[in-house]
Write a structure and sequence with these properties.
The chain has helices spanning about 1-30, 50-55, 60-95, 95-105, 115-125, 130-155, 160-170, 175-185, 185-200, 205-210, 220-225, 235-260; strands at about 225, 230. By secondary structure, it is an all-alpha fold.
Length: about 270
């Protein structure tokens, strides 16, 4: 009993440490301007939505929010459409052998800062700057290796007996993949899709270099709140909270599917 209480206390302590920055941002976003700098007390004397009004009405954040959602969802869908058959091929037929599985992640060794300048030059020469499609393609090239690597592990855990039974019944490989494998691996697909979305949602470097006013994403729009007159602390805190909410919500969704899918590979 005592050990259980100690474990619970450590879990609560870790949760408090991780939640403290988000709580601080939320409180900062609700403070009036007179209490932002200097910070006199933890809890504001009154709550205000003025900073959220600035974010939604007097900045480019709404446009950036739409751009980030479109790019993130597009990247996640494309990653799954391409990654599912690739991962299934690697898991079932060992396509390319071990060098391919290692090489998939080896593509991530090169730091993004080494790629951004060549990509910028190519995009400028091709007239693709300020283009959301280019950003989505760049994010796809970064996320796809992770998606394939994650999904290949899920597919390896699925029972091949179910697929063999479907083959005996006359199903084709594509029908097996679409009607048998994908439903059984749904938790893995959701986890990989959310993972790809979060990576695209949080990416800053390529979005900062390759986008313009019309195509900028949320991280770039947040940096735009740092002006020559100083940092707009309240609106930046409000924008940070708005940017964090979808990621937190998706985290809970993934957790639910992973918990309910612990026995998705079982054979009845």
């Amino acid at each position: 009993m005592r050990a259980s209480r100690v474990r619970d206390g450590l879990v609560l302590l870790a949760l408090a440490v991780y939640a403290a920055p988000f709580f601080w941002q939320a409180m900062t976003s609700l403070r009036p301007d007179t209490e932002l700098l200097p910070l006199t007390h933890l809890w504001p004397s009154r709550l205000t939505l003025a900073h959220y009004d600035v974010v939604f009405r007097q900045s480019l954040m709404p446009r950036a929010l739409v751009n980030s959602l479109g790019i993130g969802l597009g990247t996640a869908l494309l990653s799954l459409l391409i990654g599912v058959p690739a991962a299934y091929s690697i898991a079932r037929w060992r396509t390319g052998g071990q060098p391919v599985r290692v090489g998939i992640l080896a593509t991530q060794i090169l730091p993004p800062i080494a790629l951004v300048i060549p990509v910028f030059i190519l995009a400028r020469e091709a007239g693709l700057l300020n283009n959301q499609v280019l950003i989505a393609v760049m994010y796809l090239s970064f996320n796809l290796p992770f998606v394939v690597w994650i999904l290949s592990g899920f597919f390896l855990g699925l029972p091949q007996e179910v697929e063999e039974a479907a083959l005996v019944d006359g199903a084709t490989r594509m029908q097996i993949l679409r009607l048998v494998v994908v439903p059984m691996a749904l938790p893995g697909l959701i986890a990989a899709g959310v993972f790809s979305f979060v990576l695209a949602w949080n990416e800053f470097l390529f979005a900062f270099i390759l986008t313009g006013i019309d195509s900028r994403t949320l991280p770039v729009a947040l940096v735009g709140l740092i002006t020559q007159a100083g940092t707009q602390v309240g609106p930046m805190a409000a924008g940070t909270v708005l940017m964090s909410v979808p990621v937190i919500a998706l985290t809970f969704i993934v957790q639910r599917y992973l918990v309910t899918g612990l026995t998705f590979g079982s054979v009845k």
